[in-house]
Amino acid sequence: MTSSSFPSPISASAGSPALAAGLPVAEAGAGGVAVSLPGAGASQDTEAGHHDGAGHGGEEGHGDFRLFGLATFLVADGMTFAGFFAAYLTFRAVNPLAEGGNYELELVLPTLNTILLLLSSVTFHRAAKAIHQDRTQACRNWLLVTAALGFTFLGGQMVEYFSLPFGLTDNLFASTFYAITGFHGLHVTLGGLMILIIWWQSRQGGRVNRANLFPLEATELYWHFVDGIWVLLYGILYLL
Amino acid sequence: MTATLSPPTTTPEPQAPLQPQGWLRYFSFSVDHKVIGLQYLVCGFIFYFIGGALAGMIRTELLTPLSDFMPRETYNEVLTLHGTVMIFLWIVPVVNGAFGNYLIPFYVGARDMAFPRLNAVAFWLIPPAGLLLISSYFIGSASQSGWTAYPPLSLTTPATGQVIWILSVLLLGGSSIFGGINFIATILKLRRPGLKMLQLPMFCWALLGTSILVVLSTPVLAGTLVLLSFDIIAHTGFFNPALGGNAVVYQHLFWFYSHPAVYIMVLPAFGLVSEILPVHARKPLFGYITMVYSILAIVVLGLVVWAHHMFTSGTPPWMRLFFTIATSLIAVPTGIKFFNWLATLWGGKIALNTAMLFSCGFIFNFVFGGITGVALAQVPFDIHVHDTYFVVAHFHYIVYGGTVFVIFGSVYHWYPKFTGRMANESLGRLHFLLTFIGFNLCFAPQHWLGLNGMPRRVAEYDPQFTFINQVSSVGALLMAISTLPFLINMVYSAFAGEQAGDNPWRALTPEWLTSSPPPVENWKGPAPLVTHPYGYGAAPESQAVGASSP
What we know:
heterodimer, A: 240 residues, 7 helices, B: 550 residues, mainly alpha, Cytochrome C Oxidase, Chain A, globular, disordered C terminus
């Protein structure tokens, strides 16, 4: 193990094996090497351990820039959606659909889903507020409610998918619809898993507590981002 | 093992050996920005030689008007691989990843990048992506649709190679985005206390601008390529006109990334040359503030000029007008930078060493490519020469004559920092001479070919173009030969070069204010505060550059 005497990031990451993405970095030696997956914002927290963490030669203090890094990533992520939306709007403006196709969708279920997702942003906010007031149990309850809302949303998406009269390759609208909502659903899935992970980590003696709020804050930022994207998506795909 | 895994609350281990030591660390998942920088550099050069060999095959084929050196399909594969390797595996990783990683933490007074482990991930995505791309040639067929992968061509050529190409470019795009996030966070958030933005060396501004472009535009390409892969694998019809799709939308989305990609390739080169010129001309960088604003202007304008690649794609008149004007406007900040470099040299105490020669070669070539670029922005002219060798000549003047010249200049300039030894000047000058002559001999005649109607991407051509093509191929041969003195120099000097000392150029930027090669955390003591990185040849109180209060 002598070749693996790596600096402090390893020690800072030791508590988060759950987030290890499992890239083949065996020579790093530690099971807890957290590697940032796209979308897995919470795992970035360990990166900055190199600077905020102990044992870094008394570096001059920098503010916590981990959320900044995540926000930059979310800008990039948002640009992916922007590209999809631009493609969709252009298709819609210039590409007539073949016979039988149209751009109209049933609104009831997606509207309920929108409400669920917006509620989940509120409940996540309550969770963050609770842990700031050191009410850990309340925080954990709110996290569970948030995750439940997120997964209910995904269930609603499933129901909608199976009730739609068109399949992925039926026409241009169908393809675009499934690509965009599917990509968003992937984000919700990852977010839901992240919430469950921080729910587990905020247990008594876990690594998420008032002294280490970053995993929770990062997940919250990501979750609000995913909700915001959904609101845009709902407006563009369903209402427009 | 137990020590490294202990929770952060325990007393930290003494700082002793932080990295695997010796040459082995260059093959490890090191998080040291200097190791990662050199990993990027050497890995990039390996791909450069592969891409160069592919270019050699292209020039060999074009020695004669007939397709007699290789089958046409193979020619298409070689062409595609050449473009993809050179852009995604050589220029973008080297000019951003290699020099950015090595220099930026020094320039902001930090001991490493903001997210060191993300940094290592970003690098280690590159070798597998490159191997994946090249392997596609050997497991059937590489992509044949050019580096642009325009549908419907990319939907009708063999699917295996195209899908592997997409996968590889997605990995490289991910690497690029991770790198961009890291650079932005490092430059904005990790500056040494007391160091103001307008005191940073110009390379920081260049890389900040580049990284903003990376973060904003690369995800769009990634999303587009995912849709393209759906078209190939799942037979959706996003970009397939036969299924009601729209191929022009692909072009818009593709160029929304790939035009900024030009600036992603050339802005860091602007920054690097702005570091090299003041040192070897012993003069402050002229017009620091205008340089900063020019970079920011290029970033903004660079995002709204993409459709000038599509003047022949049925773009409506208003779009042509808008994109012509926006593209022409970019000439203004670029011209400002060009004159700033000339003014930096003007009246300087110029040391005409290899780094300076390559930088001057860059200025010469780049102004040539810049002028043809403005010409190409004009719709009537562009329609005439679209998809001809004029365009090939133009962008090689930018990416090779511009960026690759700067990469070579930078390698010579920072070689003493990397290795602690001086590179051999005679071999270096020979390298420059061969490269400069070979490059211009290869690409200048292609302007003529294009103006006279020789189309690009085709293995056969009208026999009237034979002689000029042969001249061009001789130039390519000279360029190939020019890598020999370079390689000999790099290897020989690493072992037997003259000892360089810490600061052989008497430079003022922070990377020279430490030992060569630098220790693991960059400085033995605290990071120096360098507020006048270009204060050459002037009394300290009158040092103009960046000193004016921001």
